[in-house]
Amino acid sequence: MSRPTKCRKVCHFPQILEFSPVDVKTEGEPIILAVDEYEAIRLIDKEGLSQEQCAAFMQIARTTVQRIYESARKKLADAIVDGCPLRIEGGDFWLCNGQSVNCGRDKCFKQTYYQKYKAEKGDQIMRIAVTYENGEIFQHFGHTEQFKVYDVQDGKIIGSQIVDTNGSGHGALAGVLTALNADVLICGGIGGGAKAALAAANIKLYGGVSGNADDAVAAFLAEELAYDPDVKCSHHDHNHGEGHTCGDHGCGENHCGGHH
Known about the structure:
Layout: E1 8-10, E2 18-19, E3 31-33, H1 35-46, H2 51-58, H3 62-82, E4 86-88, E5 93-95, H4 109-116, E6 125-133, E7 136-137, E8 146-153, E9 156-164, H5 171-179, E10 184-186, H6 192-200, E11 204-206, H7 213-221, H8 246-249
Helix pairs in contact: 1-3, 2-3, 4-5, 5-6
């Protein structure tokens, strides 16, 4: 029997999920770059980490990082040289929520949020986050400056607070929500990359909602919330991966569900 694959820690879910050559008509399936392969490229080639440092950050063996990195570089080379479209999806990974002992960053914003808002949340409490501005649901997830967070028990709100995002955007905002241990997000428009990040973090999305934030949560609890399951953000173009959400392709499903 083969050894089970160990899930790789990913700090930020990629914001853009699809890349295509300009003015080139291609046929066939796109090259698929797994999310953990993307993370190895980000850490080694963009952040300048060694393979040893990358392995510690992703919490896997250096030999595993070497294999992931070589696979990722080969796929990128094929896409660039042959002019193939590239799609980021799937893989064996879990999205960091700031609770990891070995984060690898001295100033991880998710650790800061987790430590600041680490109120105990038992199995009986559901935490709902709403994109928030002056009492209303803010309509562009990637630009939201605040979440209003509600704790619910036995169908009733037992507490709420407003949380600043401090300039985090798109995929990083999903990290804020994982650090807050949110179960549900209610918002207006949202792009495909952020939708995939929320799915990878097991956060249930209710998008396309407008109006008063408190009223929306009350409607949600009464099972009367009007929302759009196919919501797309008008600020995003096709390169942001609308329609290719994490749940559609099984991203992060391989033994990774226990980290949220």
